[in-house]
Amino acid sequence: MTSYSLSRGATRTTIVATWSGEECDQTANITTLSDAEHAKDLAVFLTRLSEAAWDAAAFLDSHPAVEDGIGRLIGKLRAQTEIITPVKLEAGNYRHTGGSFAEVQFLLDHDLDRALTPLTRTQRLTIADELTHDAAERAEALQLLPTGADPDDGSSRIWQMCEVTRSGKLGNLGPLPEGAAGWIERGWGWEYSPARRWGAREQLVRIEQLIAACEAIGGRAGADDEPLQAHLVVPRGHGVDDVEIVYVRSRRDGNHARYFNPYAYMVVTSVRAGGETALGEVAAVDDDTFARLLGEWTRAIPYLRSTDTYVDPATFE
Length: 317
Hints:
alpha+beta; 2 domains; five-stranded antiparallel β-sheet; three-stranded antiparallel β-sheet; 8 helices; 8 strands
């Protein structure tokens, strides 16, 4: 979630990129403009774009469309054309088309073209390089963090993955998936390691996916944060009362959020007329075991893996 701030001089204003590193914030000068108001607008738009794209990379199935839109914007910046035209971002068949997706959609279609068109050729190329670098670090995060490893480079932008965003506070509040970063903090406390935050992300994505799958077959469902779980009312017959109540929760070994283990298996229990039954413990990413324990309805909505949202930045023009 790279944010862009201003360093003001006597006659020119520099846009500075800032992101969370391993031990301290990291910065890089991006470009300098003579018009301070123009620099401010551009910094705001770039911040909103980056924060929404990082959030989408972690939690939204529409992230490939987000990166495609950013890639097309980069292509326009590199092309030798006078006017930067809007980029249209289509929702297609994605489930997650609100929140960060809608933010990127609006920026590409309404804001960025007018902020980027007045730039010089050199300034456009500098912005294109910055957008490409930010996207490349997101792509690297999607490959690295599911392995359980943190980045070796203390200045990597990957250290900020799955955090509430710096400026817009994206992910701080709201339901899943829009508020997922805040759910990580409430459920597991503040996690220093982005790999551990990714482990928490995998559990939250499973909770959100099971809720959507249950609703897709006519059930009722919701997410609870105390304890952290999916609460599923699964139809098992034709009668209104012929249902099974299922809880899929993060395993907790104490009374504090820190006792949630982001890598632990999730606990699955069932409540029917005969009482509550423990069905088993399942890794968040294990589609087959969830289907075996609860039924094929759990596949009605796909589980969102990092490979589903990964976009190779080398495909950008």
